[in-house]
Design a protein that fits this description.
Bound molecules: zinc ion
Number of helices: 10
Shape: globular
Largest sheet: 3 strands, mixed
Number of strands: 5
Structural class: alpha+beta
Radius of gyration: 20 Å
Helix content: 55-70%
Strand content: 5-15%
Number of domains: 1
C-alpha cells in the first residue's frame, strides 16, 4: 500500500508539470500575438499623432492620444483561434468565472471581430486590458460571394484602436457610436494611410 502510494506521487505531479509547460508555451504564443498587434496599433497612433488634423479630431472628442498609446503598451492580445485560444477566461483575466470557458469557445459565440474581456462586479462592469482577436481580425468574408480575404493592415489598425478606446474611455459600443467614436469615423478626419504613404 505504502509502495503504491509512493508511485502515485510522481504520477500526480506529472499532470501539473505538463500543464506548466503547456501554459508557458501558450503564454509565449500570446505574447507574440500581443507584440504583433501592439506594433500595428502603435504604428497607427504614431501616424495619427504626427498629423495635426488627426490630433485635432482626437482633441475634439477629448481623447488623450498619449493615454491611448500608454494603454496600448498595457493591453495584451490573444488570438482566439491560435494555441492561446485554449486559455480559459480565468487564466487570462485572473478572476474566477463560471462558466469558465476557453477563449476560443467564447469567441466562437460572438460575431465581433475583436472584443475586450470584461466581467460584472456587483453593479459595475469591469473592462480588463485583455483583448481577444476573433476570426474577423484575420479574415473577412465577402458579402457578395462568401469568399474569404485577409483583413487589411488598415482594417486591423482601426479595429485595434476601437478596442483600445473601449478600455481607455471605459465605454461600450453604443456609447462609442453615439459619440461618433467609431474609429473609421474618427479616422475619416485624417487622410487615408495609403494616400499619405504615396505622398510621403
Ligand atoms: Zn466595440
Amino acid at each position: 500500500m505504502k509502495f503504491q502510494y509512493a508511485w502515485l506521487v510522481p504520477l500526480l505531479l506529472l499532470p501539473g508539470s505538463t500543464t506548466g509547460a503547456a501554459s508557458a508555451y501558450i503564454a509565449n504564443r500570446a505574447s507574440r500575438t500581443t507584440e504583433l498587434a501592439r506594433q500595428l496599433v502603435l504604428q497607427r497612433l504614431e501616424w495619427l499623432a504626427g498629423r495635426n488634423e488627426c490630433r485635432q479630431a482626437f482633441i475634439r472628442e477629448k481623447i488623450d492620444l498619449d493615454q491611448v498609446r500608454a494603454t496600448a503598451y498595457e493591453v495584451r492580445f490573444y488570438n482566439a483561434e491560435g494555441p492561446e485560444g485554449e486559455l480559459r477566461f480565468s487564466d487570462v483575466v485572473g478572476k474566477p468565472a463560471s462558466p469558465n470557458e476557453q477563449i476560443r469557445d467564447l469567441a466562437r459565440g460572438l460575431s465581433a471581430d475583436a472584443f475586450v474581456l470584461g466581467y460584472q462586479d456587483g453593479r459595475k462592469y469591469i473592462r480588463s486590458k485583455e483583448v481577444i482577436l476573433n476570426r474577423g481580425y484575420f479574415w473577412q468574408t465577402n458579402a457578395q460571394d462568401g469568399t474569404w480575404r485577409m483583413t487589411t493592415e488598415e482594417e486591423k489598425q482601426a479595429l485595434l484602436l476601437h478596442e483600445l478606446l473601449h478600455i481607455v474611455l471605459n465605454r461600450d459600443d453604443d456609447d462609442l457610436t453615439r459619440r461618433g467614436l467609431c474609429p473609421l469615423r474618427l479616422l475619416a478626419s485624417c487622410p487615408r494611410v495609403s494616400t499619405a504613404a504615396a505622398s510621403e
